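Spi protease inhibitor domain-containing protein, Prevotella histicola F0411. C-alpha cells?
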Amino acid sequence: MKIYLKVFRTLRKNSLMLLSLGVFLLSGTLTFAGNVTPAEAVAIAERYVQVNKQVRRMAQTRTAKLSPYYIYNDDRGKGFVVVAGHDGMGELLAYSDDGKLDTTNADSGVRDLLRAYRQVYRQLNLHPSLTTRAVALKATGDEVRPLLKTYWGQHAPFNNRLNFGYDVPTGCVATAMSQIMYYHRWPEHGRGQNSYKQQQGDSIMTLSADFSKSTYAWQSMLPVYQRGNYSAEQADAVARLLRDLGIATNMQYSKDGSGATDNDAENAFATYFDYDVAAISLDIESPVGFLDIMRSELRKGFPIFMAGSSDLGGHAWVADGFNHDGLVHMNFGWYGNGNGYYAVSVLNLVAKKKEDYKQLLDFRYNPVIILAHPNKAGVPKIEESLREQTSKLSFDVGGDMHFLGAKPTAPTADAKVVYTHFYNRGDKPFKGDVGLGIYDEKGNMMRTCPSDYYAKGGYTVARFQGGELAHNILAADTLAFKADLSNLKNGTYTLAPVYAERKADGKWGQWTRMKMAPRIVLEVQNGKVLYDELPSNEPALQLVEKPILEDSLQIGVRNMVHLAVRKLDGRDAKCAIRAEVVDEKGQLVSTGVSRSLIIYPYGTTVFDVPLTLPRQVKGQKCRIRIKADVTHYIVDKEVGTRIDVKDYKMREPWYVTIAKTGNEKFFGSTIISVEDADGVGHGNEIDYEALQKARLHASFEVVGAAGYVGPVRYQLTDMVTGRVVSLGADPSSLNLTEGQSGIGVYSIWMAKNNVQLVNGRWYKVGLIVNLDGKDVDVFPKWENPYCIRVLNGPYNSDDDITPTVINTTETKGNITFEGGVLNIQQTGLQTVSVYSLNGALVQRVDAAGKNNLTISLPHGTYIVKITTNTAAGNLVRKVSW
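C-alpha cells:
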C-alpha cells in the first residue's frame, strides 16, 4: 500500500496496517559529495563506543565501501552506535549505551527505521537539492532518561492466550500499547465489548471480548519475563492484557506477523481502556512542533505510542525518552533488542526549491504519534490544541512582534506590545480571541492580556465575515495588547501570542500559545527589566543556551561545540554557523564552520560546530564570536548574507580560557603492527626463530598537531619493571597538519642483539613527540594500549640485559643538547646511539645519508656515540640538560 506524506494523516482515511514483519532490504550505495567514508565513520563512532580493532583496520583500507549508515557494536558489549552515511543526515542516527544491535535478529521497527534511513540516503544522493530538516531542541542540556523499565516481546508468555493451534505473535500495536498501560498501571478494568472477523486458513472465525469483565493484575506483571523465572499467575496476567489489546484493535493474527492500524490503537485507548488520546502526524505538525510535542510529553512523564509507515508496511513501538543530541529513545517491544536513541528528524525530507517537490514522492515514511493520558485522578488532560479537530494558529512569513514605543525598563502596567501576520493552519475554522500570554520560566501562564475585542465576543467575531478565521486564511491586522508587567517578582518571563476559542454555548476555551510564533523574553531584577530575547522582522539569530562542549577544549584537536541557535524572524532559511576564535590581541586565529541546516521561523536548532584552537593561544582568554551564513529562498531565488549571531541573553559574550598544559591531542584512530622484511604483518609478536628482523609500523589520523614539525619516535615500556627502551623512527621527522590520514612511521629494524627485550614479556608501545621541550606520548589515551613481545631472543630475564660499557667521553664533533633537543652535525654521519649513564641503550637513529640529526630526549645526562664513515671514526660525548 503506497501512502503519500500529505494524504496519510490529513484525511485519516487510509489508516496504515502496522505489521510485525521482518522485511530487510539492502540497497546499493552511490558515491557523491557529502557521503561519509568508512574511516570517517569509525572516527565518529569511537567517540561513543569502543570499536573492534579489526573493524577499525578494515575501515581504513581502500576496499572499504560507502554505506547509507555504519553500525558499530561496542567491543565490550556496552551498546552500539549507527553513524549516518551522508552528512546531510546529521552525524548519529542511533545510539545506545547498553545492549547491541543485531540486524539479523532485530525487531521490524528497527529494520523499518534503518530502511527509511537508506531511503533518505539514496534520495540525498540522487537529488542533492533535497535536504533533511534540522533537529530543533528547546534546551541543549535537556534530556529525559528512558521511562519504560519493561523488556516485553510478542511470544510466550505474552501470546499464551492466543489459542490458534499454532504460535502467533501478539502484534507490535498491542505490545506497544501494553507497555504504556503497564507503565501507568491503568485501567483496573476494561470497558465495553468488541467483536470482529479473523481469517484462519480457509475459514473465518470470530474473535470477541467483553473488556468490562477483565481485571488487569498489574501487581502480578513483571518488567522482564525470563524463561523459568516467572509463575503461571505472572504469565497469565500479561497474556490476558495482550489478548484484550489484540481484540480491542481488531488485530489480524498470522504466523508471519500480526497487524492492526494506528486508528484502531487510538480508538482502543479511548473506548475500551479509559485513556485521553490525541494522534499527531509529522506531516500535520512542523518537524519543530512534532519534536517539541514529543519532548513536552516525555518531560511530563508520558511514554508515547509511535508508528512509522513506508510502502512496505509499518510498525509500532514506544518513544520513552530523549537526549540532548536530539535523538529519541525507542523501546521496540522485542525483548530489549535494538532499544536505543534514534533520529526522528532525519525522516523528514525537504525540497529547497519548488521544482524539487516531485522528488519527495520517491520517499515515503511518515511517523505518527498517539499521546495517551490515563483518565485517573491527578493526571492532566491532553492540551486541546493538540487534538486533531481543533484550530491551530501560527505565524506567517511576514510575522512581527515588538513593543509599541520604548521598551519598559521597569515593571509597569502600561506596556504595549503589537503583533501581526498569523493564520489558521488547522482544519477547523477558528472563532474566538487572540491575546498576549505572560509565562514564568517553568512555562506556567501567569497572566493573559486579551485583545480589545474580547468583551465583544472576540477578535474574529469583530473582524471576519461569519465571525470565523477559516483554514489557511491570514490575519494581517496589527493588533496592540496591554502587557501588564506590574508586580512581577524577580525571575524570567516570556511574552507570547495566545488564542482562545469561543464555544457554541458562549463559554471560552483555554488560552493556548500560537505555533511557530515570536516571543519576548525578559528578566525582572530588583525593580529593573532586562531583555534576554527580542523578535526581529529582519534576518536575525541568537544563542539561547550557553555553548556546550563535548569535552574540555584541547589544543590542535577538532573540538565539537553544540550551539543552540534561535531564529528571531519569520522566514525559513538555510544556515551554517561559524565560530571565530579571537585571541587577546584581537586577532582572528581560527574559524570553525558547521554544516548547513534548514532552520525554522522562531525555532531553536542545535548546530555542531568544529572548533580548533592553535597552540599560540595556550594560556590566553579568547573570545569566541558566533556568526551565520544565512540563505533565504525568495521567489525561487537564493538570497545569502552573513550576520552576527547575538550573544546569549544579548549580553553574555562567550570567552574560553585555554590551559597552558595538559590539553593537547595529536592522533585520532591509530593502528600499530609488527612487520617483517617483506611487509607481512605478525600481530604483536616477534619470534626470532621465524624472523631475522622486524619493525613496528604505525598508521594514524592527525586530528590535532597544529603544524607540528619534528620527530615521532617509538618508546617501549616494560610492563613489569617500567624500564623504557627508545627506538628510532623512519622517517626521522614528520610535518603534521590536521586532517591528514594514513600517515605512517616505522621503527628501526629490531634484531636479536640490537634491542634488549626480555622473552615473553609485554612492552607497551608509545609514540613520542617533543612539545615545548618536553617528550610527550601522544598515543591516543582512549585506545586500548598496543603491546608487543619477543620470543626466542637472547634475553630470558632482566639479569641477562647488560649495559653497553663506554669507557671514553671524547668531545669531538659538533653536538649541542638544549631544551630537550640533541643536535648532531658530522660529515659522513652514519648512526647516532644514545645511552644512559648505566650503559642502557636509550635510542639509536640511522642518519640515512644525512650529515645532521635531531633527537628529542627528556631531561637527563646521556652518553652519545656517533658512528661515521670517515677518518674521524667513532665519536663519543657526554651531554646533559
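The longest helix spans residues 108-126.
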